[in-house]
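User: For my dataset I need records formatted as: sequence, then structure tokens, nothing else. Please produce one.
Assistant:
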Amino acid sequence: MWSGYGGGRMSQDKTISGHCLCGAVRFVYSGEPNWTVYCHCESCRRATSSPVTTWISVPRDLLRFVQGAPRYFESSAGARRGFCERCGSPMTYEHERFPGEVHLYAVSLADPSQVAPSRHVFADEQLDWFEVHDHLPRFGATSRTTPLRHGPKGE
């Protein structure tokens, strides 16, 4: 199993904040994320209308919504996605397989440079016309398997 959270080291007492586009929903969490990844799966791409999504996994008990709260919809069996009902910004992903985690969009942080991805997941579903030029490991599905490669296709 691939381990590592990816991103700058954050002390347990450091508070990280974020919000939706309009600011109606705001959150904070403390400490280090479990991990930060690029996800290329079709479900995440469709949920964000983008070619890739960058996720931060944080322990559920370290996340607090300090203004407003997301609305939720069940996007697939066992999964729910949170969004701001005012501006429509996607905010969270939760799955019953990960009961102690909430996944946040990295770009929803007030300062997204506070984290950095450590790997790519679902690279088997990556769009042919999109590539991130880094040398991080690419996993076909989850990172519980052996990486397909390190770096972009063809390198």
